[in-house]
Each structure stands twice: as structure tokens, then as C-alpha cells.
Amino acid sequence: MLTEFELIARYFNRPPAPDSRTALGVGDDCALMTPAPGMQLAISSDMLVCGRHFFPDADPAALGHKCLAVNLSDLAAMGAQPIAFTLALALPQADPEWLAPFSQGMLALADRHGCELIGGDTTKGPLTISITVFGEVPPQQALRRDAARVGDDIWISGSLGDARLALAGYRNELALSDTELLQAAPRMHEPTPRVELGVALRGIAHAAIDISDGLVGDLGHILERSHHGATLNVDALPPGNVLQQREVDLRRRFTLAGGDDYELCFTAPARLREAVEKAARAAGAEVARVGSIDREPGLRLVDAAGEALQLDLASFDHFRT
Ligand code: ADP
Ligand code: MG
């Protein structure tokens, strides 16, 4: 049986990267970090609990990836560059067969973004994974939820709904073919945080949020904090590759109120459309312009022709908890 210290040493302690901001990493009472002069720290925590946020038999490598990805997604939505993270783990047992792929999945994503694991806590208990990420962003350039302005375009990165479609398959809410499930599942299990896009949108976008609970709810946070309303062209929302093949009603429901997409929803002045597209290309992300911020409060859903749509979102996604 591994002791707590052996476990940390084996799976979570690595030599610091050469260009690291970490003066002291895993092993002491605290880590020491040296932030770049003049930068602000962006800090966010996200906890994933077994049975609530993932299935007990979840693939450990994908789970390691996802736990960090959802945290990096918060940094992306702020326009912050990841620098470090801490990991608090409650584990039912110290199982090397689980710990090895879990830490590899997590650290591979961390390395891709130059985000160092600098500390954490490990305890016995029901499987719970809590991460705090640290990023940096120049003062005044963070993409805040309260910064949308009347006349801004609303943009979405990537595509929406395939993660929700995979979940519907697992829950037998919908019949999915094996191929459909195979193609949609990675969107649920291994989301791609839009870190490069978030950073590229500094100085261009006004407000941003990452879509974790579904577009309507998450855009709602921007509207509430910015004290504005919006019009959303539902037929401009980009569906995932698998959802794309489904009927219009399901496409609308799952792009509007799916969840677990981890795409960015952001607003930017209409005069900066070309700058947005250029930033997205440089960041390797697709972006779609899907609506606008209005003075009139509330969210108006329209179709491609601009006709109002009456969609009762609460009723078709009642199974979300
Ligand atoms: P303390 O007694 O101060 O809580 P611990 O014995 O819990 O310290 O941890 C020892 C060291 O290992 C600390 O530097 C802590 O940050 C680090 N650590 C503990 N658990 C993890 C983990 N899951 N991942 C990374 N570092 C960890
Ligand atoms: Mg401790």
C-alpha cells in the first residue's frame, strides 16, 4: 500500500520547468510563485465529485484531462494565460492502476499549456477532485462578465451540443448509434479549453464566459452582470458534428441548453469583426457570430429569418440537475 507521501512523490511531483514562475513547488508547506511584474493573477477553483460530475467507472486518463480542462476553461474565459495549479484529491484508495493514467492525463494537458502542478492536498475519502488554477493577465485586459456593451456582437467558439448528445446517449434519453456515441463522447469526456483564443481576444472582446451549464444560462450571466439584454439567432449556433445530423428541434435544444461544451461565448464591438476573426484564426479556433447585445432587457431567440421563436427551454431540459 502506498503512503500519502509516496503517492505524491510518484504521481504528482515533477521537476520544475526551466522557464517556470515557480520558485518552490511540491514538498514544502506552501509553494512559492513569482508573478511576472505588473501582471494580475487570475484565480479559479472547480471541484468534480464522483457520481455527480462523472460516472464512477470514468476512464481515469480522460478524467484527469477533464478536471484540469474545466479549470483552464475558466482562465480562458478571462483571457488569462495559465501558469500553475494546485490539486486537492480525496481518494477511496491509493490504486496505482487508477493514479498512473489519471496523473498522466492531467499532466499532459498541463504541459501543453505550460501550467505547473505546484501543490495540493491528498486525503482518503469519496473520490473528489478539486483544482485551483492560477493565470496571469495584464491589468484592464481581463474579459469580465460585466463588460458587454449595447451593440456588441455575440460570438461562440467551436461548436455546441455534442457533449450533451453523448450524455443523452449514456442516459438512454435518445437512441444513438455506436458511431454517433463514439464521435460525440470525446466532447463530453475530453473537452478542449479555449486558452489560446481567450488570450488572443484580449483588447478585442468586451465580455466573455465559458459555456459549462448551457449557452442560455451562461449568456444570461453576462446579461445580468452587464445589465443588458440580447437577441440570439438560434439557427446561427454551430452544432457539433454529430448533432449536425439530427433534426432541427434537437439541434436548437442542445446548442441552446446543452452544457459541458467548454466553448467561449464572448461579446465584441461590431467594428472589430475582422479583428475577432483574425484572432480566432491565429488561435486555431472557429468562431460564429450568433447575435447582439441590446438595450432592452431579456433574451430574445430568433430564427434565421429574424422571426421570434418561443422555446420553452426549462421543459426540454428538465432532466439536468
Ligand atoms: P501539509 O501537511 O502542509 O498539508 P501535505 O503533507 O499535505 O502538507 O503535503 C506535502 C506536500 O505535497 C505539500 O507541498 C503539498 O502541496 C503537496 N501535495 C499534497 N497533495 C498533493 C497533490 N495531490 N498534488 C500535488 N501536490 C500535493
Ligand atoms: Mg495536507
TrEMBL record:
Substrate binds at H53, D260, F316. Mg(2+) 3 binds at D29, D74, D210. Mg(2+) 2 binds at D46, D74. Pathway: Cofactor biosynthesis; thiamine diphosphate biosynthesis; thiamine diphosphate from thiamine phosphate: step 1/1. InterPro entries: PurM-like_C_dom (IPR010918), PurM-like_C_sf (IPR036676), PurM-like_N (IPR016188), PurM-like_N_sf (IPR036921), ThiL-like (IPR006283). Gene3D superfamilies: PurM-like C-terminal domain, PurM-like, N-terminal domain. It comes from the Bacteria. Mg(2+) 1 binds at S45, D46, D121. ATP binds at G120, D121, R145, S212. Residues 27-137 form the PurM-like N-terminal domain. CDD domains: ThiL. It is an enzyme of class 2 (transferase). It catalyses: thiamine phosphate + ATP = thiamine diphosphate + ADP. Keywords: ATP-binding, Kinase, Magnesium, Metal-binding, Nucleotide-binding, Thiamine biosynthesis, Transferase. Mg(2+) 4 binds at D29, S44, D74. Its EC number is 2.7.4.16. Coiled coil: none annotated. Residues 149-302 form the PurM-like C-terminal domain. GO terms for molecular function: thiamine-phosphate kinase activity. Belongs to the thiamine-monophosphate kinase family. Catalyzes the ATP-dependent phosphorylation of thiamine-monophosphate (TMP) to form thiamine-pyrophosphate (TPP), the active form of vitamin B1. This is Thiamine-monophosphate kinase. The lineage of its organism: Bacteria, Pseudomonadati, Pseudomonadota, Betaproteobacteria, Burkholderiales.
